[in-house]
Amino acid sequence: MTPDQMFQIASTAVLPGWLALALAPFAPRLTDLVAAVVVPLLLALAYTGLVLAFWSGAPGGFGSLPDVIALLSHPPTAVAGWIHFLAFDLFVGAWITRTARAEKINHLLILPCLALTFLFGPAGLLTFAALRYALRQRIAL
């Protein structure tokens, strides 16, 4: 399988998890299973397989920015890096959804946070943290 094919498969495989998060109020248990367990663990398995198969032959490393650039210039390790992003962003999205449910935050309010997490990872987490803070301040008044 080529790195491009692996990229396409991983990018498609993550979509059911994000769809489950968007529709979480309708099936919370299924959402937790799909978005927090099944899809992230499948991605983690793919990531680990790529690292085991290609790490030793990849250029670069983590010691400097040029090393990271060299590492990500190698297609199989670039795909591993992409899968790393996909898995962790989805895991964070699932955490956001569970936390919002536990804190009784309206699901419509977290949808922008989920979209930002899907597209820009930490920006979505930051937005959710700001939302939680704002809601707590409003309640404290």
List keywords for this structure.
0% strand; 141 residues; elongated; mainly alpha
Chain-wise SSE layout:
Elements: H1 3-13, H2 15-22, H3 28-54, H4 65-72, H5 75-102, H6 107-120, H7 122-140
Helix pairs in contact: 1-5, 2-3, 3-5, 5-6, 5-7, 6-7
Descriptive notes:
This protein has 141 residues and is an all-alpha fold. It has one domain. Helices cover 82% and strands 0% of the residues. The chain contains 7 helices and no strands. α2 runs antiparallel to α3 and α3 packs antiparallel against α5.
Taking the sheet with the most strands, its summary is: none
Overall pLDDT: 95
**Total E-strand runs:** 0
Question: How many domain regions?
Answer: 1
Q: Termini separation (Å)?
A: 58 Å
Helix content: over 70%
Summarize, please.
It is built from 7 helices and no strands. It is mainly α and 141 residues long.
